[in-house]
Amino acid sequence: GKEAAMLAGLEMTREEYVAIMDADLQDPPELMQEMYRLIKEDKYDMVGTKRVDRQGEPLIRSWFSNMYYSVNNLISGTKLESGVRDYRLMTRQVVDAILSLPEKNRFSKGIFAWVGFDTYYLPYENRERLAGNTSWSFFSLFSYSLEGFISFSETPLDIASFLGLITFFFALIGGLYIVIKTVVWGNPTPGWPSLAVIILAIGGLQLLSIGILGKYIGKMFVETKDRPHFIIKEQSKEKN
């Protein structure tokens, strides 16, 4: 797939500057000159591109894409520019940093942002591909977006734990109300509210347990990725 192709290309390069672009010419090749100038003159380490519009794209797909970036930036510490493309020019140092991440399930948009470095996003107007049709269906894009969420955020696991805790709390309140109503006020309660409270309490505990278990699995997931703790851009040669 696309991720494997990009990784293979990056691993084969040895040059000082490396570019990634699609072959369908939706990525304007004429931007490469400006990207090179920004790196050479303005001293950026990476110049990416982002679309300022989504011309030729179905409205529903555009809406989901914008929603994805909004949700990602809300729950993930790795922020992504809306409309960002894989089309970019990078220095050798950036490429080496990207290749230092040994993970198998790769989400390159997140990786490009995660490694940091001074980055500039060059805006351009979207244009339709000159030939062929996209191989990305709605479901493949949905699966790819889930990969991005899972790779760079543990917030969904926190949400599960939080919902479980809230559910169990309301079950306790409901159970306490039934006890007070029956014992203090002497008003017998039908069987179904008690059963509903018990089911709610058990469900809340299960959801909380799943969230806690998920956090442990999430920590194992982070360890197996074996990402470096830090990436050094430059180091002083002076010795104290």
UniProtKB/TrEMBL annotation:
**Segments passing through the bilayer:** 159-180, 192-217
A cellular component term, taken from the record's GO annotations:
plasma membrane
User: What superkingdom heads the lineage?
Assistant: Bacteria
Source species: Dolosigranulum pigrum
Task: Please name the InterPro entries in this protein's record.
Answer: Glyco_trans_2-like, Glycosyltransferase_2, Nucleotide-diphossugar_trans
> What UniProt keywords apply to this chain's record, in alphabetical order?
Membrane, Transferase, Transmembrane, Transmembrane helix
The record, for Pfam families, names:
Glycos_transf_2
Domain Glycosyltransferase 2-like, chain residue ranges per copy:
1-97
Recorded protein name is Glycosyltransferase
Molecular function (GO) terms listed?
transferase activity
